[in-house]
Specification:
Elements lengths: L1 E4 L16 E8 L3 E8 L5 E4 L4 H11 L5 E3 L5 H4 L2 H7 L4 E5 L9 E3 L4 E4 L2 E7 L8 E5 L4 E5 L2 E2 L2 E2 L7 H12 L6 E4 L4 H11 L4 H15 L7 E2 H7 L9 H6 L8 H13 L4
Parallel strand pairs: 4-5, 5-6, 6-7, 11-14
Antiparallel strand pairs: 1-2, 2-3, 3-4, 8-9, 9-10, 10-11, 12-13, 14-15
Length: 277
Protein backbone atom coordinates (compact mmCIF):
# COMPACT_ATOMS: atom_id res chain seq x y z
CA UNK A 1 0.00 0.00 0.00
CA UNK A 2 1.17 3.51 -0.62
CA UNK A 3 -0.13 7.00 -0.13
CA UNK A 4 1.28 9.80 -2.18
CA UNK A 5 0.66 13.31 -3.30
CA UNK A 6 -0.66 13.57 -6.82
CA UNK A 7 2.78 14.47 -8.07
CA UNK A 8 5.16 12.51 -5.82
CA UNK A 9 5.07 8.77 -5.11
CA UNK A 10 5.87 7.92 -1.47
CA UNK A 11 5.74 4.27 -0.52
CA UNK A 12 6.62 4.72 3.15
CA UNK A 13 4.32 7.32 4.66
CA UNK A 14 1.40 9.62 3.81
CA UNK A 15 2.32 12.91 2.19
CA UNK A 16 -0.37 15.49 2.84
CA UNK A 17 1.04 18.32 0.77
CA UNK A 18 -1.48 21.15 0.92
CA UNK A 19 0.07 22.71 -2.18
CA UNK A 20 -1.04 19.78 -4.30
CA UNK A 21 -4.45 19.40 -2.59
CA UNK A 22 -4.64 15.74 -3.56
CA UNK A 23 -3.40 12.47 -2.13
CA UNK A 24 -3.55 9.17 -4.03
CA UNK A 25 -3.80 6.10 -1.81
CA UNK A 26 -3.02 2.85 -3.63
CA UNK A 27 -3.69 -0.65 -2.29
CA UNK A 28 -3.88 -4.22 -3.67
CA UNK A 29 -7.17 -6.09 -3.77
CA UNK A 30 -8.70 -9.19 -5.31
CA UNK A 31 -6.07 -11.30 -7.07
CA UNK A 32 -4.10 -8.66 -8.96
CA UNK A 33 -6.17 -5.46 -8.95
CA UNK A 34 -5.15 -2.14 -7.49
CA UNK A 35 -7.65 0.06 -5.72
CA UNK A 36 -7.21 3.82 -5.61
CA UNK A 37 -8.62 6.50 -3.35
CA UNK A 38 -8.19 10.06 -4.59
CA UNK A 39 -8.49 12.39 -1.61
CA UNK A 40 -8.68 16.17 -1.58
CA UNK A 41 -6.82 17.28 1.51
CA UNK A 42 -8.60 20.64 1.60
CA UNK A 43 -12.26 19.77 0.99
CA UNK A 44 -12.16 16.23 2.40
CA UNK A 45 -13.75 14.77 -0.74
CA UNK A 46 -12.65 11.24 -1.60
CA UNK A 47 -13.19 9.30 -4.83
CA UNK A 48 -12.73 5.58 -5.33
CA UNK A 49 -11.39 4.88 -8.79
CA UNK A 50 -13.43 1.80 -9.69
CA UNK A 51 -14.75 -0.52 -6.98
CA UNK A 52 -13.07 -3.92 -7.25
CA UNK A 53 -13.69 -4.86 -3.60
CA UNK A 54 -16.17 -2.95 -1.42
CA UNK A 55 -14.90 -4.47 1.83
CA UNK A 56 -11.28 -3.58 1.13
CA UNK A 57 -12.19 -0.07 -0.01
CA UNK A 58 -14.20 0.45 3.18
CA UNK A 59 -11.29 -0.84 5.26
CA UNK A 60 -8.87 1.54 3.55
CA UNK A 61 -11.26 4.48 4.00
CA UNK A 62 -11.52 3.72 7.71
CA UNK A 63 -7.76 3.44 8.10
CA UNK A 64 -7.24 6.78 6.38
CA UNK A 65 -10.23 8.28 8.23
CA UNK A 66 -11.73 9.46 4.96
CA UNK A 67 -15.37 9.56 3.84
CA UNK A 68 -16.27 8.27 0.38
CA UNK A 69 -17.99 11.01 -1.61
CA UNK A 70 -17.45 9.89 -5.21
CA UNK A 71 -16.92 6.80 -7.36
CA UNK A 72 -15.26 7.11 -10.77
CA UNK A 73 -15.87 3.96 -12.81
CA UNK A 74 -13.78 3.40 -15.92
CA UNK A 75 -15.74 0.52 -17.49
CA UNK A 76 -18.36 -2.10 -16.73
CA UNK A 77 -16.33 -5.23 -15.92
CA UNK A 78 -17.19 -6.82 -12.57
CA UNK A 79 -13.76 -6.22 -11.04
CA UNK A 80 -14.26 -2.49 -11.63
CA UNK A 81 -17.89 -2.06 -10.63
CA UNK A 82 -18.50 -4.98 -8.26
CA UNK A 83 -18.45 -2.78 -5.17
CA UNK A 84 -20.78 -0.07 -6.47
CA UNK A 85 -23.92 -1.48 -4.90
CA UNK A 86 -22.52 -1.97 -1.39
CA UNK A 87 -20.66 1.33 -1.37
CA UNK A 88 -23.70 3.17 -2.71
CA UNK A 89 -25.78 1.77 0.14
CA UNK A 90 -23.24 2.48 2.89
CA UNK A 91 -22.16 5.98 1.77
CA UNK A 92 -25.16 8.29 1.63
CA UNK A 93 -24.85 10.92 -1.06
CA UNK A 94 -21.92 9.27 -2.82
CA UNK A 95 -21.86 10.47 -6.44
CA UNK A 96 -21.16 7.77 -9.03
CA UNK A 97 -19.66 8.60 -12.43
CA UNK A 98 -19.12 6.24 -15.35
CA UNK A 99 -19.22 5.72 -19.11
CA UNK A 100 -22.59 6.65 -20.58
CA UNK A 101 -22.62 3.80 -23.08
CA UNK A 102 -22.06 1.03 -20.52
CA UNK A 103 -24.14 -0.43 -17.71
CA UNK A 104 -22.67 0.99 -14.51
CA UNK A 105 -24.55 0.21 -11.27
CA UNK A 106 -26.14 3.34 -9.72
CA UNK A 107 -24.43 5.66 -12.20
CA UNK A 108 -25.70 9.21 -11.66
CA UNK A 109 -23.30 11.05 -13.95
CA UNK A 110 -22.94 9.36 -17.37
CA UNK A 111 -19.83 10.51 -19.19
CA UNK A 112 -18.17 10.29 -22.57
CA UNK A 113 -14.87 11.40 -24.04
CA UNK A 114 -14.56 15.20 -24.15
CA UNK A 115 -16.61 15.76 -21.00
CA UNK A 116 -15.15 17.48 -17.95
CA UNK A 117 -16.32 18.04 -14.40
CA UNK A 118 -15.16 19.53 -11.12
CA UNK A 119 -13.80 17.45 -8.27
CA UNK A 120 -12.59 19.33 -5.22
CA UNK A 121 -12.16 22.53 -7.18
CA UNK A 122 -10.04 20.77 -9.82
CA UNK A 123 -10.91 20.01 -13.43
CA UNK A 124 -11.25 16.34 -14.33
CA UNK A 125 -11.17 15.60 -18.05
CA UNK A 126 -12.79 12.48 -19.46
CA UNK A 127 -10.86 10.64 -22.17
CA UNK A 128 -12.39 8.15 -24.59
CA UNK A 129 -10.15 5.11 -24.31
CA UNK A 130 -12.49 2.50 -25.77
CA UNK A 131 -11.12 -0.78 -27.05
CA UNK A 132 -10.88 -3.07 -24.05
CA UNK A 133 -14.59 -2.31 -23.74
CA UNK A 134 -16.39 -0.09 -26.22
CA UNK A 135 -17.22 2.67 -23.76
CA UNK A 136 -14.10 2.60 -21.57
CA UNK A 137 -13.11 6.04 -20.23
CA UNK A 138 -10.14 7.43 -18.33
CA UNK A 139 -10.01 10.26 -15.81
CA UNK A 140 -7.29 12.87 -16.33
CA UNK A 141 -6.47 15.68 -13.89
CA UNK A 142 -4.19 18.01 -15.87
CA UNK A 143 -3.34 20.28 -12.94
CA UNK A 144 -2.19 17.27 -10.93
CA UNK A 145 -0.52 15.49 -13.87
CA UNK A 146 -2.30 12.22 -13.09
CA UNK A 147 -4.47 9.85 -15.12
CA UNK A 148 -6.54 6.88 -13.99
CA UNK A 149 -6.75 4.62 -17.01
CA UNK A 150 -8.42 1.41 -15.79
CA UNK A 151 -7.60 -1.43 -18.18
CA UNK A 152 -6.96 0.70 -21.27
CA UNK A 153 -3.23 1.01 -20.63
CA UNK A 154 -0.98 -1.06 -18.36
CA UNK A 155 2.65 -0.78 -17.46
CA UNK A 156 4.24 -2.33 -20.57
CA UNK A 157 0.86 -3.41 -21.92
CA UNK A 158 -2.78 -2.68 -22.65
CA UNK A 159 -6.07 -4.46 -21.99
CA UNK A 160 -7.35 -7.30 -24.12
CA UNK A 161 -9.55 -6.11 -26.96
CA UNK A 162 -12.79 -7.69 -25.76
CA UNK A 163 -15.29 -5.35 -27.42
CA UNK A 164 -13.57 -2.71 -29.51
CA UNK A 165 -11.76 -2.68 -32.83
CA UNK A 166 -8.07 -2.17 -33.63
CA UNK A 167 -8.80 1.26 -35.10
CA UNK A 168 -10.71 2.32 -31.99
CA UNK A 169 -8.14 0.97 -29.56
CA UNK A 170 -5.17 2.46 -31.42
CA UNK A 171 -6.87 5.87 -31.44
CA UNK A 172 -7.46 5.51 -27.69
CA UNK A 173 -3.83 4.67 -27.03
CA UNK A 174 -2.74 7.66 -29.08
CA UNK A 175 -4.89 9.92 -26.88
CA UNK A 176 -3.06 8.59 -23.85
CA UNK A 177 0.33 8.75 -25.56
CA UNK A 178 -0.30 12.41 -26.36
CA UNK A 179 -0.58 13.34 -22.68
CA UNK A 180 2.50 15.07 -21.22
CA UNK A 181 5.42 12.73 -20.58
CA UNK A 182 5.40 13.53 -16.85
CA UNK A 183 1.79 12.39 -16.42
CA UNK A 184 1.59 9.73 -13.70
CA UNK A 185 -0.48 6.78 -14.90
CA UNK A 186 -2.48 4.68 -12.47
CA UNK A 187 -3.61 1.43 -14.09
CA UNK A 188 -5.80 -1.21 -12.51
CA UNK A 189 -3.70 -4.39 -12.44
CA UNK A 190 -0.26 -5.72 -11.54
CA UNK A 191 0.49 -7.35 -14.89
CA UNK A 192 3.88 -5.77 -15.50
CA UNK A 193 6.14 -8.82 -15.25
CA UNK A 194 4.12 -10.82 -17.77
CA UNK A 195 3.74 -7.78 -20.00
CA UNK A 196 7.48 -7.19 -19.87
CA UNK A 197 8.30 -10.72 -20.99
CA UNK A 198 6.17 -10.22 -24.06
CA UNK A 199 7.62 -6.76 -24.69
CA UNK A 200 11.14 -8.20 -24.67
CA UNK A 201 10.09 -10.89 -27.15
CA UNK A 202 9.05 -8.30 -29.73
CA UNK A 203 11.64 -5.59 -29.04
CA UNK A 204 14.70 -7.28 -27.51
CA UNK A 205 17.10 -4.57 -28.73
CA UNK A 206 15.32 -1.81 -26.79
CA UNK A 207 17.94 -1.02 -24.13
CA UNK A 208 15.52 1.08 -22.09
CA UNK A 209 13.13 -1.85 -21.99
CA UNK A 210 15.92 -4.21 -20.89
CA UNK A 211 16.91 -1.83 -18.08
CA UNK A 212 13.31 -1.38 -17.03
CA UNK A 213 12.72 -5.11 -16.80
CA UNK A 214 15.68 -5.44 -14.44
CA UNK A 215 14.06 -2.83 -12.19
CA UNK A 216 10.70 -4.57 -12.41
CA UNK A 217 12.21 -7.93 -11.45
CA UNK A 218 13.82 -6.33 -8.41
CA UNK A 219 10.54 -4.74 -7.34
CA UNK A 220 8.48 -7.91 -7.75
CA UNK A 221 11.10 -9.97 -5.90
CA UNK A 222 10.36 -7.70 -2.93
CA UNK A 223 6.60 -7.89 -3.59
CA UNK A 224 6.56 -4.17 -4.36
CA UNK A 225 4.22 -2.61 -6.96
CA UNK A 226 5.43 -1.61 -10.42
CA UNK A 227 2.51 0.81 -10.69
CA UNK A 228 2.13 3.75 -11.15
CA UNK A 229 4.08 4.44 -14.28
CA UNK A 230 4.36 7.51 -16.50
CA UNK A 231 3.49 8.36 -20.07
CA UNK A 232 7.14 9.09 -20.83
CA UNK A 233 8.29 5.68 -19.61
CA UNK A 234 5.53 3.89 -21.50
CA UNK A 235 6.36 5.72 -24.73
CA UNK A 236 9.90 4.37 -24.50
CA UNK A 237 9.14 0.78 -23.51
CA UNK A 238 5.49 -0.24 -24.04
CA UNK A 239 5.10 -2.11 -27.35
CA UNK A 240 1.47 -1.05 -27.69
CA UNK A 241 2.52 2.60 -27.84
CA UNK A 242 5.36 1.89 -30.27
CA UNK A 243 3.54 0.37 -33.24
CA UNK A 244 4.45 3.32 -35.45
CA UNK A 245 7.97 3.98 -34.17
CA UNK A 246 9.77 0.62 -33.84
CA UNK A 247 10.94 -1.20 -36.95
CA UNK A 248 12.08 -4.12 -34.81
CA UNK A 249 8.62 -4.48 -33.28
CA UNK A 250 6.95 -4.38 -36.69
CA UNK A 251 9.29 -7.05 -38.00
CA UNK A 252 8.82 -9.34 -34.99
CA UNK A 253 5.03 -9.44 -35.41
CA UNK A 254 5.21 -10.03 -39.15
CA UNK A 255 4.13 -6.60 -40.23
CA UNK A 256 4.85 -5.33 -43.72
CA UNK A 257 5.74 -1.85 -44.89
CA UNK A 258 2.21 -1.51 -46.25
CA UNK A 259 0.58 -2.03 -42.84
CA UNK A 260 -0.99 0.97 -41.15
CA UNK A 261 -0.28 1.60 -37.44
CA UNK A 262 -3.74 0.22 -36.70
CA UNK A 263 -2.89 -3.01 -38.52
CA UNK A 264 0.44 -3.24 -36.69
CA UNK A 265 -1.36 -2.74 -33.39
CA UNK A 266 -3.79 -5.54 -34.25
CA UNK A 267 -0.85 -7.87 -34.93
CA UNK A 268 0.89 -6.89 -31.69
CA UNK A 269 -2.33 -7.42 -29.73
CA UNK A 270 -2.89 -10.82 -31.36
CA UNK A 271 0.71 -11.82 -30.63
CA UNK A 272 0.27 -10.91 -26.98
CA UNK A 273 -3.00 -12.86 -26.79
CA UNK A 274 -1.19 -15.99 -27.92
CA UNK A 275 2.09 -15.40 -26.07
CA UNK A 276 3.11 -18.12 -23.62
CA UNK A 277 6.52 -16.87 -22.56
Amino acid sequence: MSTSSATTQDSTSPNYNMATQFTVHQFPCLQDNYGYLLHNTVTGETAAIDTPDAKEITKQLQQQQWKLTHIFNTHHHWDHTGGNDALHQSNTGCQIYGPASESIPHCMHPLQGGDAFDFGGTRVEVLDVGGHTKGHIAYYLPSQKIAFVGDALFALGCGRMFEGTPNQFWASLQRLRNLPDDTTVYCAHEYTMANGKFALSVEPSNSKLVDRMEQIQELRAKNQPTVPTSIGIEKETNPFLRCDVSDELRSKVGSTSDDTPEQVFAKVRAAKDHFRG
